[in-house]
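Before our next group meeting I need something from you. Please put the record directly below this note.
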Amino acid sequence: MSSQQLCVPVPIKDKEFLAELVEKGKDWTLLHGIARRSKDHFSHDTITFAPFLLFPSTFPETEFKKAKKIQTTLNQLMHTVAHDHQFLLNSLSEITNVDPFMARLVQIYQEILTEGVTQKVSLGLFRSDYMVDSPTGTIKQVEFNTIASSFGALTSILPNWHRQVLSLCGLHDKIDNIPLSNTLTGYASGILQAYDLYHSRIRSKSFVSPAILFVIEDNGFNVGDQRLLEFEIQRQAPHVRVIRRSLTDIGNHLQLGDRRRLYITGIEIAIVYYRAGYSPAAYYSELEWDARLQMERSLAIKCPSVQYQLAGSKKIQQELARPGILEKFITDPEELIAVRDVFTGLYSLDMNDPKSDDTIRLAIDEPSKFVLKPQREGGGNNLYDEDISEYLKKNQNFRRTTCMDSNG
């Protein structure tokens, strides 16, 4: 897949002017919270600007509106899929045999089902990713994120820089083409609506109101996006406390009270918001896995619940693309066509799929036509081009991945 070829000429006067724009952009982003900690030299005392485009990129307006229009349908689809227990377990059965991480998540899910779900309310802050298919000029879905869907805060702020840089370049007539983004306020509002739902239904036994828990990485670098959301929550609801803890910290201080109320160091938790836990790297030992299980068992509202996380896996995305599957979850003909239209080619590598051997041979012979995607979130996990051939030839664990058209 590639970006749209149509471009807007930008009048760059000379190298000095470009260098000035670059310096202004870096300073502007830092001063407005588009920042992160260094991956290579992590320190709590320093930040750097998060990578950003100096100028806005072009995108076909009709396709942008299409993506916005079907988002609610996709949200409802993921919710329905997440609560179809048999479909989830059947679809993931082969993956659990070859992917220990997914197997543990499914194990937690099965334990919750067997025991009985304590909190039936789940909160989803989802993000559907697209790229423009170069042959057709239409959007195709890259993936659907259900856990730790990041950059909602940063991308709500960055358009303001893009408006400014267009103004600096004299492109005043283009400024109105940059759409407004309310993701930051919307995310915060969604979390607070879930908080109010918990607070109204579950009368706290403490004189202190329950808190919102951000589950974070030990040395998470994406601090700007997370803190901006935290601060927006507290701007909208100054009385609500937000605490940040790693899975290890939670494992050491978690308690379940009556009705399985969740407490961290004595603080009742209303919402568990995961910004970690989407990859094996967060689970150093059984302590972290037990923390995840106990939070799932608790009365707190999870964002996401483990079934939402499983529903967002690449394997489920691939299963939904099979002929006749989507029809089980979407009954409206227009919505069905609209969702099917943004799907790209997705192919199973399961041993029980009669077509998987043909897919493997084709991917080895013509790897540039595909992307190989493991059941992971967080970026940096996909394989492209000749790396696909080498991986399929040499790695016995390739059946834990999903193969997708590159449409490049």
